[in-house]
Amino acid sequence: MTDKTVKVSIRHLYKIFGSDPQAALTRVRDGMSKAELLDKTSHVLGLNDINVDMHEGRITVIMGLSGSGKSTLIRHLNRLIEPTAGEILVNGEDILSWNEQRLRKLRRESMSMVFQKFALLPHRTVLENAGMAMATRGKSRRDYEAEARKWLDRVGLSGQDDQYPHQLSGGMQQRVGIARALTSNADIMLMDEAFSALDPLIRTDMQDLLLELQEELHKTIVFITHDLDEALKLADHLVILKDGAVVQQGEPQEILLNPSDPYIEDFVADINRARVLRARSIMTDRPPQGEIAGDVAPTDNLESVIAQAEGALDRTYRVTRGDEALGYVGMADVMQALVRRPSGYTAS
Amino acid sequence: MATYDGLFDTLGLRDWCDTDASDGPMSMADLMARTQGGDEAGTTALRDLPFPSLDALHDACNAIPQTRDLTSGLETGFLGIRDALRVVVDPLTQPLSWALENTLWVMTETPWWIMIPLLLLATWAVGRSWKIVGFVAAILAGLAFVDHYEVAMQTLAIIFVCAFICVLFGVPIGIAMSRSDRLQNVVTPILDLLQTLPPFVYLIPLIFLFSVTEPKLYGIAVILYAIVPVVRLTNLGIRLVDADVIEAADAFGMTKSQKLFGVQIPLALPNIMAGVNQTIMMSLAMVVIASMVSAPGLGILVLRGIRNLELGVGLVAGLGIVVLAIALDRVTKASLARIDASQANR
Ligand SMILES: Nc1ncnc2c1ncn2[C@@H]1O[C@H](COP(=O)(O)OP(=O)(O)OP(=O)(O)O)[C@@H](O)[C@H]1O
Ligand SMILES: [Mg+2]
C-alpha cells in the first residue's frame, strides 16, 4: 500500500465534561479511570488521549459501543465541541488556534457532515437542502442549482427537487444528506452513524453507494458506526474506541486476525470471517512446493477462494493484481484463518 | 386608652411616642370608638384583640404612622416622580398616540364600501381561504347592519395598532430571551407579573401619568397586557427548534444571523404565530376594559349598558365583541394552519 499524506491528525486529545475539566484532566493523566472519575468528581471522561492519523482519500472508520465517545470525537474535527487538551491538525495546521472566521471557512469549504438523524432543514425543499452549504457561502439559488441537481442525480434522487424532506422516506432523506455534503465540495466528509437509522437493506444500498462514490471522488471520509460489519466493509483504517480511549487501530483485516484485547476479540467473535477476510490479508510470500491451482485477486474474500477450490483442501492459489504476483494462498492457510487464533487472552 | 398602650409603656418608648404627638386627623377607627363611647376599661377581651396593625399601633403610639399615611405616601411619592417620568415617557410614547389617532381616523373615515373590501382582501392575504373570507364578510355586514360599523372599526383599529406594536417589540424580546438564559430569568417574572395583574390595575398608574384624553393611555395598557404571549411563545418556539438541525447549521458554517433568519425563526414560526393569535385575543379583551379610560369602540357601548342599565345596548355590543373575536381568531388560525402545512415535520 502506498502511504498517502495525512489529512487530519489528532494528537493527545482529551475531552472531559463537567464544571472543572482542567482539574479532572490532571487526575486522568495520573491514570484515573472513567468510572472512578465519574464516581469521585462527577466529571465525565469523554475522550482519553486520542491519537489518530486520517489519510487523504481514505475512509477512516471509528467504531465503538454506545457511549464510547464516537460522536464526541467526530465533533472535535470541526470544533462543534472544544477539547479540554490536545491538538487537531488539518493539513498540518492546528485548527484549535484558528479564529471564528477561519473556522467558519473550514466548515463551509473543507468539511461537510452527514448526520444520524439526517438533520435536514424541514422548511426547505430537497434542492435547497442539497445546496445548503453553497447558499451559506452566499451563492444564490441560480448558482448552486446545477451543482445540487448533479449530486442529487448522482445519489439517485432525480426529479424530487421540489419535495419537502418530510415527504421522503428515511433512506431518501439520508441521500439528500449525502448530496448536501457532496454539493459543498469539501474534501473531508464527516459521517456520524450516517446509516444507523436505516433498515438493513437500504443500509447495504447506502454503503454500496458510498463506496461507489468514493471510488471516483477519493474524499477523506471519517465514518462512525457501532456495527462491525459496516466498519469492515467500509474501513481503510479502523479505530476502535472504548470508554473514550483507543483500544486498537489499524488495517481492519489486521485487527480481525490479531485482536489485541479481549474487548475486541468479543467484538470480532460473531463475524463471518470467510466473507470478511480477503486473500491479501492471509497470503504468504514463499512459493509453495506443489503446483499452483489458479489465480485469485487480492480483494477476493475467503468464501470465493473456497468456492473456487470446490472444497478441495490441498490446493494453492497465486494472488495476482494484473500480471504481478503478490503472494500465495494455500487452502490450509484459509482454513486456519477461519478459526480464531489462539491468543494470549482468554475471551470470556 | 388603646389595646397596645401597655406594650409601649413596658418597652419604655412612651416618651418617643408622645414627642411628636401632633393631633393628626382622626382615623375611622377613632371615630367609631368615639361614637360607641363608653367602656374604656383598658381590658379588652382576648377575643377582641386587634391584630397589631399600623392603625391599632397608632392608637397606642402617635409616632407610628397610620395605614392611610402609607397609601397617601405612595401617592405623593408617585406624584413627585410623575413630572420627571413624564419627561422621559411622554416623547417615547407619543408615536403611539399618533398611530392610534391616525389609524382610528383612517378606519372610520374611509367609506365602508372601500374599507370592507380592503379588510376582506387582508383576510384573503393572511388566510388564503374563501370560507374564512365569506365568514368575515358576514360578520362585518352583520355588525354594519345593526349600525355598529363605526364602533367596530374603532375597536379593530386599536387592536391592529396595539397587536402590531406587540409583535414589533415582543418578537425581538422573545428572540433575545431565547439566546440568553440570564435574560430569560429576568424577563420571565416580569411577564408573570404582567399576566397576573388584574387588567384594571394597569390603568391606575397610567391615569396619573397621562391625561385621560390621550390615546396612548389605553394604548399602553393594551400593549402591556397583550404583549406577554408573543414574547413567551417566541422564546419557547426558538428554544424548541430541533437541536440536530441547529447542529447541522453550525457544521455547515452558518453565521449567527444566517442561523436565526434561515433556520430558527422559520422553524419557530408556528409557535410565534400562535403567540400572535393569543396577543390579538388579549388586546381585544383589554380594549373593552380600556373603554373606562376613553378608548373608543364597542367597549363604550358595553359600559353604557352597565352604567345606564340599558340591557339591549350592552348585550348587542357584547355580542359584537364576541363575533369580532371569533373572526380575528379564525383568520390568524388559518394563517397558522398554512404555515404548519408547509412544514408538517412534527
Ligand atoms: N454534553 C455532555 N455533557 C456530559 N457528558 C457528555 C456530553 N456529551 C457526551 N457526554 C458523555 O460522553 C460520553 C460519550 O458520548 P458520545 O455521545 O460521544 O457517545 P457515542 O459513542 O457517540 O454513543 P452513541 O453510539 O450512543 O451515539 C458518554 O458517556 C456521554 O454520557
Ligand atoms: Mg453518537
UniProtKB/TrEMBL annotation, chain A:
<dbReference type="GO" id="GO:0005524">
    <property type="term" value="F:ATP binding"/>
</dbReference>
<dbReference type="GO" id="GO:0006970">
    <property type="term" value="P:response to osmotic stress"/>
</dbReference>
<comment type="subunit">
    <text>The complex is probably composed of two ATP-binding proteins, two transmembrane proteins and a solute-binding protein.</text>
</comment>
<feature type="domain" description="ABC transporter">
    <location>
        <begin position="26"/>
        <end position="268"/>
    </location>
</feature>
<keyword id="KW-0067">ATP-binding</keyword>
<comment type="similarity">
    <text>Belongs to the ABC transporter superfamily.</text>
</comment>
<comment type="subunit">
    <text>The complex is probably composed of two ATP-binding proteins (TmoW), two transmembrane proteins (TmoV) and a solute-binding protein (TmoX).</text>
</comment>
<dbReference type="Pfam" id="PF00005">
    <property type="entry name" value="ABC_tran"/>
</dbReference>
<dbReference type="GO" id="GO:0006865">
    <property type="term" value="P:amino acid transport"/>
</dbReference>
<keyword id="KW-0997">Cell inner membrane</keyword>
<protein>
    <recommendedName>
        <fullName>Quaternary amine transport ATP-binding protein</fullName>
        <ecNumber>7.6.2.9</ecNumber>
    </recommendedName>
</protein>
<dbReference type="InterPro" id="IPR003593">
    <property type="entry name" value="AAA+_ATPase"/>
</dbReference>
<dbReference type="GO" id="GO:0015418">
    <property type="term" value="F:ABC-type quaternary ammonium compound transporting activity"/>
</dbReference>
<keyword id="KW-1003">Cell membrane</keyword>
<dbReference type="InterPro" id="IPR003439">
    <property type="entry name" value="ABC_transporter-like_ATP-bd"/>
</dbReference>
<dbReference type="InterPro" id="IPR051921">
    <property type="entry name" value="ABC_osmolyte_uptake_ATP-bind"/>
</dbReference>
<dbReference type="GO" id="GO:0016887">
    <property type="term" value="F:ATP hydrolysis activity"/>
</dbReference>
<keyword id="KW-0472">Membrane</keyword>
<dbReference type="GO" id="GO:0005886">
    <property type="term" value="C:plasma membrane"/>
</dbReference>
<dbReference type="InterPro" id="IPR027417">
    <property type="entry name" value="P-loop_NTPase"/>
</dbReference>
<keyword id="KW-0813">Transport</keyword>
<keyword id="KW-0547">Nucleotide-binding</keyword>
From TrEMBL, chain B:
<dbReference type="GO" id="GO:0005275">
    <property type="term" value="F:amine transmembrane transporter activity"/>
</dbReference>
<dbReference type="GO" id="GO:0043190">
    <property type="term" value="C:ATP-binding cassette (ABC) transporter complex"/>
</dbReference>
<dbReference type="InterPro" id="IPR035906">
    <property type="entry name" value="MetI-like_sf"/>
</dbReference>
<dbReference type="GO" id="GO:0031460">
    <property type="term" value="P:glycine betaine transport"/>
</dbReference>
<dbReference type="GO" id="GO:0015871">
    <property type="term" value="P:choline transport"/>
</dbReference>
<feature type="transmembrane region" description="Helical">
    <location>
        <begin position="280"/>
        <end position="303"/>
    </location>
</feature>
<dbReference type="GO" id="GO:0015226">
    <property type="term" value="F:carnitine transmembrane transporter activity"/>
</dbReference>
<feature type="transmembrane region" description="Helical">
    <location>
        <begin position="155"/>
        <end position="178"/>
    </location>
</feature>
<feature type="transmembrane region" description="Helical">
    <location>
        <begin position="132"/>
        <end position="149"/>
    </location>
</feature>
<feature type="domain" description="ABC transmembrane type-1">
    <location>
        <begin position="152"/>
        <end position="332"/>
    </location>
</feature>
<feature type="transmembrane region" description="Helical">
    <location>
        <begin position="217"/>
        <end position="234"/>
    </location>
</feature>
<feature type="transmembrane region" description="Helical">
    <location>
        <begin position="309"/>
        <end position="328"/>
    </location>
</feature>
<keyword id="KW-0812">Transmembrane</keyword>
<comment type="similarity">
    <text>Belongs to the binding-protein-dependent transport system permease family.</text>
</comment>
<feature type="transmembrane region" description="Helical">
    <location>
        <begin position="190"/>
        <end position="211"/>
    </location>
</feature>
<dbReference type="Pfam" id="PF00528">
    <property type="entry name" value="BPD_transp_1"/>
</dbReference>
<dbReference type="InterPro" id="IPR000515">
    <property type="entry name" value="MetI-like"/>
</dbReference>
<keyword id="KW-0472">Membrane</keyword>
<keyword id="KW-1003">Cell membrane</keyword>
<keyword id="KW-1133">Transmembrane helix</keyword>
<keyword id="KW-0813">Transport</keyword>
<protein>
    <submittedName>
        <fullName>Glycine/betaine ABC transporter permease</fullName>
    </submittedName>
</protein>
